[in-house]
Amino acid sequence: MSNKLSLSLAFGPNPRSQPILDGTVAPEGIELACSEVGAGELFHRQLTHQEFDVSEMSISSLLLITAQGNSPWVAIPIFSTRTFYGTQAIVRRGAGIEKPSDLKGKRVGVNEYQQTAALWARGFFQHEHGIAPTDVEWFMERTEEYSHQGATGFQPPPGVRLNHIPAASSMAQMMLEGELDAIYHYFWGGGGMNRSSVDLFVHDDMRMLFPDPEAEGARYYRKTGVFPFNHTVILRRSIYEQHPWVARNLLEAFETAKQRSYAAARALNQPYLATGLLPPEARAASATDLFPYGLAANREVVELAARYSHEQGLTPREVAVEEVFAPTLLDS
């Protein structure tokens, strides 16, 4: 009989975590029963039913439930996905949107208002282009029954006009029918929680708000040094309190898995950093690893997410890093 601690883990597909999911890398002293679950479904299941001991989690939703008190989770500073949210905004031709300032007064779609991609995109448009969340009218695709909002009880703050798109429709359908003007960040594929099934990025009636999204991402990175993440990893608090060593062993295993994925990509002569940056910025940034784990390299970005969350009315106060992450990893 194994003396290892048995834990259930769920994660979305990601090359940096794949060695954990397929068992190539195993955390010391832990036996994982792994499941691959899409992020939207996974977060809903964790927020409503707490099905898995360890999982990926939206940092925005985690900040929200932490601010409410008595969170059943502690976070591990593993940041699995990053991109420049907002730079790939889509606008409808004929909506009168030629530049970011034209978004004022427009109808904007979002998969989920409280999700981290929307949090970062709103912060990007507010602080880089002067468009506050109250300057547009919001239309949310996910139904309250299956959304993070329904699980956490979030309600939009005063001044934010938030509508739910009827279940029989979708963001794509509303864009094509002229009922929406723009989408800040578009998740599509049809079925499940994200109902849109049309690739609006290549549709003749749509165009990118920024003609060169990579150039806008590079500009933002040069100015701020911020490469936003949207997911971290959570561990059931009751397990952490009984076995605090688990948090560091998981962090070390995920770091090993990430480095192994980098090495495998290099061996195949494949680019291993999908960054959304132009080559000069990507080369400069890759020297320090654009996907760092641990709090030392990520504290400022976590604090910025917490600041945006409070600024946008998702949390009633600015949540401190120490409230979110495992105490034994605050020095990581």
Number of helices: 12
Arrangement of strands in the largest sheet: 8-7-6-9-5-10
Stretches where pLDDT is under 50 for at least 5 consecutive residues are none
Q: Order of SSEs, N→C?
A: EHEHEHEEEHEHEHEEHEHHHHH
β-strand percent reads: 5-15%
Q: How many β-strand stretches?
A: 11
| Mean pLDDT reading | 91
The CATH topology assignment of the largest domain is: D-Maltodextrin-Binding Protein, domain 2
What is the total number of structural domains?
2
CATH superfamily of the largest domain: Periplasmic binding protein-like II
**Structural class by sheet pairing and helices:** alpha/beta
Rg over CA atoms, rounded to whole Å, is 20 Å
Question: Which term fits the overall shape?
Answer: globular
Q: What is the terminal separation in angstroms?
A: 33 Å
Q: Any idea what the CATH architecture of the largest domain is?
A: 3-Layer(aba) Sandwich
Percent helix: 25-40%
What's the story with the biggest beta sheet?
6 strands, mixed
Explain the overall architecture:
By secondary structure, the chain is an alpha/beta fold. The chain has helices spanning 18-21, 39-49, 59-68, 116-129, 148-152, 171-176, 213-224, 237-242, 245-267, 279-286, 299-311, 321-324; strands spanning 5-11, 30-36, 54-58, 73-76, 90-92, 107-110, 137-140, 161-164, 182-183, 206-208, 231-236. The chain folds into 2 domains: 5-82 and 228-329, 3-Layer(aba) Sandwich (D-Maltodextrin-Binding Protein, domain 2); 90-224, 3-Layer(aba) Sandwich (D-Maltodextrin-Binding Protein, domain 2). The chain is 35% helix and 15% strand. The longest helix has 23 residues, at 245-267. The protein is globular. The two termini are 33 Å apart. The mean pLDDT is 91.
